[in-house]
Amino acid sequence: xxxxxxxxxxxxxxxxxxxxxxxxxxxxxxxxxxxxxxxxxxxxxxxxxxxxxxxxxxxxxxxxxxxxxxxxxxxxxxxxxxxxxxxxxxxxxxxxxxxxxxxxxxxxxxxxxxxxxxxxxxxxxxxxxxxxxxxxxxxxxxxxxxxxxxxxxxxxxxxxxxxxxxxxxxxxxxxxxxxxxxxxxxxxxxxxxxxxxx
Length: 198
Ligand SMILES: [Fe+2]
Prior knowledge:
ferrous iron binding; three-stranded antiparallel beta sheet; binds fe (ii) ion; alpha+beta; 10 strands; metal-binding; Jelly Rolls
């Protein structure tokens, strides 16, 4: 497992968050870093790649000590989907394995939500951004009915603890806090091999 790739990625995002005031620049440069992270599927530990038959899984891989950002693996069982939901913070979504279909929603003049445009397909290696500034409400599903898909997300907060909303059809928005599927995190910090061989 090439877990050093995840360690390098969280270092890059920490530096970007430290040095970048513009969300546009952060999403652009963070998107390049995420694209590099998902380019080769050889680093995600198995424990954080496990689907559940009941619902999609969200595993926390890392959160910044000041909760300025977090990284998660999203594991979709065959045919699984999210409700229509928001994020309230910036986010980058990159597909590591399989493929996803994402539909964006926008508010109409009378305040109701409407799907804007066609569903878009994200294949392994593709990256997409969300944020309140560029469009924050969407619905996502596994593109496959017969296999698992996995995406890696980075968000501008400890996303599992953020008060967000889902948007059921013909009903008021429903508050939700997503939480995480795991109670322990991958160990990015065992550098003993590198140290012994340097
Ligand atoms: Fe989302």
